[in-house]
Structures are given as structure tokens and as C-alpha cells.
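Entry 0007
Protein: Large ribosomal subunit protein uL3m
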Amino acid sequence: MLRLWTLGQRPAVGPPSRWIHTTVAISAAPVVGSSSTVASVTDSSAPKWTPNSIRTGLIARKRGMTVLWNDQGVRLPVTVLQLENCQVTANIRTVRRNHTEYHAVQVAASDRPHKTTTRQMLGHFKKAQVPPKRIVREFPVTPDAHVPVGTTLSAIHFVPGQFVDVVANSIGKGFQGGMKRWGFKGLKASHGVSAAHRSSGSAGNCQDPGRIWPGKKMAGRMGNKRITTQNLAVVRVDTSLDLIFVRGAIPGVDDAHVLIRDAKKKMTALSSANQAKGLYEKVLPKGVDDMPFPAGTADLARVLPPIIEAPAYRRSPFIPQE
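Output (C-alpha cells):
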């Protein structure tokens, strides 16, 4: 079970811290949070999360890195992600040429002035009844995971203890050599090598083919590329400030927009491989009984404690698990 601590009750163990033909609007079911932490506020008739469900992701800003200490005194490096008025602007349903369907939820975040927004986007946001936004992205979902247009999403969309994937553009490092870009070891630093210690060496081929094959590892521009960091654990969620504390580092500069979604390898792929329909314990990590479905909203966050932390499990095989 998750530990729920209010701001005044938290123990002082460390510093705080993209086909065709038709696109149809979907009317989604009401948003109801369902997790072990909100059992008292869920509706039994509301749609429930299943291991085959794919929820929408969120758009957040990377605020930087800090450290946390769990209740066992273990120091955890974390990245702080903050939501800026993240709202749903459209539900997408597209019928492909092979008669399969594509479902997605379009999310926008970070308010911007009207005068810097194009007329086309102003009309789009007006139809959704949300203020103009700086960034708009869509997340593929299952047909049961559509969210009503205009819904404000909260950090409680992700439950502490679960795993997430974070997508962002990596920091640009300019033109770099083969050693820095690909990890080549370079040439000898002794006899017979003259001012070419960090060179990649010969890159040519014989008369056939007489050229360099595309994709060869050579010097070139490094960074500034879309990167997905997978299977990062959510350590803490701050519902009052819409903060998500993710263990480890993520790509991108500070204040850059990042995309956060449920970990595919830990949840979606695992449920498909095991055919674990209804077997939550084979998909969700320890300490997480259920997920807010179809999304964690700002209304749900108001009835929860301001700070929710994941339980700390001992990793030593010689110490009994909690």
C-alpha cells in the first residue's frame, strides 16, 4: 500500500525536496480516479483500469534535479517535473485503410498570450474551451481511455511506485568526434602516431563499393535528438504544486517540455506477454493496487493529501521484504 503523508506529517528523514478517412470526436466516460489511495472517492459503476488499457500521457516541464531520502535513509537522485495547466483539447478516432482504428487523446500545456497564437490554433482552443497553449501533443490510447475535452490533468495521474517513460530532446553538443560521439577508443598515444590520437582512423572501403555506407559511425552533430528514457520510478507526487519526482536523470535542458507516459515495457508489453487480464499483480509494481482511470484530474487531487510518496522496499536478499 502507498504511504500517505500530509505536509506536516512527513517524517524528517532528509531535506524536502500520427491514415485516413474520418476523424470523429469521442464522448468519453466521466473521469473517476481509482487507486489504492482514493478507494473512498471512487464510483463502483465507473470504468476501471485493466492491464490492457493504455492511458494518456502528460506534458510537463523539467525543473531540474535534486535528492530525496526515503524512510530508510537511502539517498535518491530525482528529477522534478511540473505540470503547467495541462488540459485535454481533443479526442481522436481515425479509421485506417485496413479498417483498424486509431485512438488518441490530444493534450496541451503551458498557457500563452492570445497575440502570440495563430488564428487557426485560437479557433482550436476556443472550440475546446481552454486558454491558448504553447505545446500540443497527442498520446495513443485504447478506446476505453478517452478523456472529456477541457479536463485539467493533475500530477496524481501517475501513482508513486509506478514506472514511467519520459520523452524529450537531448541537449545539443555540436559537432563531435568519433570518441565522444560513439565511444571509440582512438589511436595509440605512443610510437608512430603523429597528432592523430583522437582520430577515428581509416573510414574508406575498397573499389567495391567505393563509397561510405550510410549510417557509418563517424564524426558529426551530437545531441538535439528525441530521446526516450524508459522505466523510471515515480518517487513522490505533490498534488498542490503539480510536481512529479522521478528517480534518475532524463534528457533535455531545464525548463524544457517533456512527455511522460506509463512505461510500455513494464506495463503494456508485460500485460500482452502474460495475457494477464485482471491479474494486476503481474503488471503493476509492488505497492500500487490500481491506477486513476481514464486519467488523474485536478478534481481528484483536491481530495488527496498534498504529498504522496512511494513505499521504500528493501533490496537486500538477506532482509525480509515489507
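Curator remark: The helical segments are 119-128, 178-182, 264-274, 298-301. The mean pLDDT is 82.
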